[in-house]
Write a structure and sequence with these properties.
Number of strands of chain A: 3
Number of strands of chain B: 8
Strand content of chain A: under 5%
CATH superfamily of the largest domain in chain B: P-loop containing nucleotide triphosphate hydrolases
Radius of gyration of chain B: 19 Å
Order of helices and strands of chain B: HEEHEEHEHEHEHEHHHHH
Number of domains of chain B: 2
Oligomer: heterodimer
Shape of chain B: globular
Number of helices of chain A: 19
Radius of gyration of chain A: 26 Å
Structural class of chain B: alpha/beta
Structural class of chain A: mainly alpha
CATH topology of the largest domain in chain B: Rossmann fold
Order of helices and strands of chain A: HHEHHHHHHHHHHEEHHHHHHH
Chain lengths: ~450, ~270
Amino acid sequence: MDTTPQAILDRSDQLRGELGENFRDRMVTALYASAQTIADRSVRAGAGGKWDLDQRIDRVVTSRRLGLPLMLALLAVVFWLTILGANAPSRALAQFFFWVEGVGAGWFEQIGSPAWLTGLLWHGVYRGLAWVVSVMLPPMAIFFPVFTILEDLGYLPRVAFNMDWLFRKAGAHGKQALTMAMGFGCNAAGVISTRIIDSPRERLIAILTNNFVPCNGRFPTLIMLAVIFVAAAFPPAFASVAAAGAVVAVVLLGIGFTLLVSWLLSRSVLAGEASAFTLELPPYRRPSVLRILHTSLIDRTIFVLRRAMLTAAPAGAVIWLLANIDAGGASLADHCIRLLNPLGHAIGLDGVILLAYVIAIPANEIVVPTMLMCYLGSGMMSEIEAYDAIRAILVDQHGWTLLTAVNLMLFSLLHNPCATTIVTIWKETRSRRWTAVGAVMPLAVAFAVCCAVAQVWRLFE
Amino acid sequence: MSFSHDCGDCPAHARPARMGVEIGNHDYVVALAGNPNTGKSSVFNALTGLRQHVGNWTGKTVTRAEGGFKFQGKRYKLVDLPGSYSLLSASQDEEIARNFLLFGRPDCTIVVVDATALERNLNLVLQVLEITDRAVVCVNLMDEAERKGLRVDVRSLARDLGVPAVPTVARTKQGLAELVAAVAAVIAGETATAPARAETPAELGRALDELVPMIEEAAPGLPSARWVALRLLDGDHKVRQALLSGELTRLVAEQSAAAERGGRLMAIEGAQ
């Protein structure tokens, strides 16, 4: 008997021909029939109460007219709660941390430590950590639990259900709505979750565009910018609502770019048809409080914060060094900023912001703290009263306008993925080319969009 | 748990003890399969004491998670496979699940099913039973079924499937001790299993009779040559490819080599 693989295949092909065309159908039908018989014999249905309620809720939540508006409203409420709750604790934390900085630096001076050591440790490393914790911790500690409640309830598949037709129209897989939702948590996790997509073409689209939804790390940045600049343009009564609205608008824009870029990719380098899939809507389940607290506080808040602190400490040191090493009458930081200023100005930002982005490449959630440290690098400010004071510094001393804030929000929404995500893209695609595309394409989009906005804005100014 | 030492050893009172990720020296490997969103991760967490993130949505577990537990002095490694509706299609997560069942050769497979949607879930159970004899069905979400007014007769289910079926509520850990006891009994051979298989039409039977010996000779030690034959007759692209490229024989060889080394390392990692 010839049992080489080829012989086995040939024989099986022959046998398949003999079995007839609809062999597969018959096999699957037989399988389903057995399943049905067994299930019928062992399940008896009574009057169902909860089932009807689930279906009635779903009829509203996933309805064609109300589904999407309800989703946006829910999103807005989540952001509004975050914004409302984060301001006061953020201020308290900042006050406390900067008081400690003063005490610590003073104590170092007393015991006779050299000025450069005091500066590097307290005004560099420590200040970087202090900024990260006080700016990022409060919004995360509110946003993550609320988001996790929605996830545990079973709302995310409904989001995918509401949006899958959009992705299909963009030539992408409907399940991309789910991987996108995962990206709101963490883009790296979103990229891994694209494994649920069968077709390599659609999976690649999902991987390359995942970065366009802001992750947990970038939400605090967006929320802070919204609070400082958008809210300030409205009367106090509407301030927090307006800020929440601005974040929702940014998220919508991110989803818009996801769809647009998916559409462009599926019409060009990754051309093909969208494939069909089934999406199951799980029953609504009552979230368990302990698990929500664990997931949102330990797995997410502490995780993101730890990662931010690990990158903020060296970043703080780098900024202090740049600001305090003198080269030809000006600090290194000044040289960098002057070099980057023209480019920054062209896209409605400035050299300091770009420098902060370069320093914060390992984890771009620390961009705002890094930026603040660059602005304050010379040490002329030590008393920061959280959000109000940040606004005063940026607008009054550094010439920020509404354009700067809007473009910074756009830039932080669109720019390149963080180092972790880039590594994950490489692990998932095993292709240098697609990894490079995944890193550079969003950056190009960010520059193009910010540049366009800046030019148009200046026309009307 | 506050059992005195003597009581804890007595089989009647035996409860699984969590081992977390300390699974270096295990005696048995147990796979955890099931449709998406049936509470598979809850079962995994409750048994191992690990905290895999549990989410109420489809497709959350895309990689394989591993953990361990101890029961009656034996150490078990539990492998949480990605949730899948069938073993017939080609997405990466379903392939990971099917490769593990085929080549990982678990000592027993727990198939978690959703008591509120039994019919659809049984499709996967029947497919798993095509590959392996040693399985236990975990009928989870019994509380939700009750709330929906569904009454599931687990004994009738076990009789029809030919493998043990255990009702559970993984979130409150109800029934999990019984589940582990059932698994241990299947592994020890105390529970004889006779899995239900879909009836084979005569002409298919003849085709299988011819193909199965060929495959067994080409890839000795393959756990289920019958399943591979069925897939080949169906024209399954990935299985054809695996046979042609020699991957099938390689995986089988690697797995038995690993088993001989005593470590029972997992030779297959899917494409992780």
